[in-house]
Amino acid sequence: MPGHPNTSTDSDAHTGDDDADDAADGDDAADGDDAADADDAADANAGKPDATEAVQSTVPPDADPRRCPYCSRPFTTQERVDLHVGLEHYDVCSDAEASAFEDAYTDETEELRLFRLKTTAVIVVLYFGLLIVYSLAT
Amino acid sequence: MTPALAVADAVTPMGSRALGRGVTEVLARAVAHVGGLVDAVNTGTVPSWLTVATGGALVGASFLFTSLLTDHEGIRAVNGLRAVVPTTDGLRRAVVAGTRALGVLGLVLVLVGAAFGSPEPRRNVAILVVWVGWWAGYVMSLYLVGNTWPALDPFRTISRVLPSLDYEYPAHVGAWPAVAGLLALVFVEVAFPLAEDPVALATAVTGYGVLTVAGAVVFGVEDWFGTADPVARAFEHYGRVAPLARDDDGITLRVPGAGLVDYDGMDDAGAVAFVVALVFATTYDGFVATPAWRSAAEAVAGAGVPGLVVYLGAYALGFLAFVATYRIAARLGRRTGDTYVAVVELARRFAPPLVAIAAGYHLAHYLGFFVSLSLPLWSALLAPTAPPAPQQFVLPSFFGAVAIAAILLGHLLAVWVAHAIGFETFPGRLQAVRAQYAFVVVMIAYTMLSLWIVTQPTVTPPLFPLL
Fold first, then answer.
1. Entry pTM
2. Is the pLDDT of residue B350 over 90?
3. Where exactly are the structural domains of chain A?
């Protein structure tokens, strides 16, 4: 993605990890580094112990992104910001943000219900479709 | 003489430089494990096209099932399950020291066995140790148990005792040397009779060893083996699939594949290309043994194209096609996910699930091979200088089904890991599902391709004069 200036957040957070990993790996029979990784990810996103680490983003020049007030990650809609704040910064966010999160979450649940119905329908069609194909082909 | 006949007549004029003999074909032809596999698939009542279609449908359906699980915290909790297996420092040090000694001993055995052992592949201790013991059996332990390669790797052990020049590893090069190294290793494996000719094998091992130790001496052991060494990198990836991992508390037990979800080793485009290369390499290895490849390659070679160009051209084109497909999937993911997450970031985040696919494919290829040839391996280890006439386990016919199950299991694990990564990346639940559409389509296509290769009758790859 050349030429996209809007690289949000600290993607450098990765670079340090490797050395720690390798040092650990080099010294032992079984690999492992998850504990160290978790710590680093937490440092990169202060405030939330299991926060997702920095997410590199690119915003098209003509877009008008909504940004997270805590980590300034850009999102396409305000609902996504609300959801993100509730999921990643719940322990530091304001009461208003917490209730915005709950609203956005409830709204999405409605949408999700329809999606689940469709998913189930496709699974059923797939199952019986294969059943018929098997009965014809074998 | 027609051109086709001319090609057939020209088979192996150069003796040891026969192009296109994969390990599985050469060692397994007598074993008939592949034959057993094909029989199990084809003599049953299910035609192979239906097996392929069912595999694709199963992967698609499992994506639909996992898409019903939409709880951010719940998904995180499953992958966060950990149990510490208690160990003591003393025990650990002893195991590490023992493993390192074992690795160096194994290397010596391979080099000496190649020089003085039986010239017959299935009685030669070097060939059996490398292909059956190491490449088939040991690699399985990496993704089924845990990554022990950093301790076992004899070249790492040797590099540790050598002085280091400690040049700084150029950061912008990243994992690209590992990509080139992996592609080169796999091509050498396919193109040269490393499973037939102990001397060729020892030459390849020595060549790899010299390059590796030189790299570690110049750039430092940790930098070289952590970034640039293709074998260490591939095995580290496989170790991520495994349920056991080492951390500060000792040995930790985790959900298989959980190590892929929070994997932050994908630092650059090279690291992503490496994972794609890992998946591609196994595919190519199987593909050159299909009748379709045989007829296509013979047609091209019959038109006067040198064998090396045919094999190398298909290799390069195939790899580029895999990389391009993955890149397009990441691009589409950005669109269907309606997100500002950069395409490179998506490519990086969704690369680890591919490792589970590669592991499943490896298991499918080598489980039967390992089981049936474990007997000659054992005899050769007991009597390296004069192994008895090789005997093998005859595989029961259900092993064909085991191979298919392994491929599917790898893909199912990949679907689950990708799902978890989607939910780590996106705050919207529907968004997290939608962003995976293109990746899932690619996985379905890849499952079907893999199953198609596995259910094809295996033929010896056509052999052409190199130039």
1. 0.82
2. yes
3. 1-53, 66-137
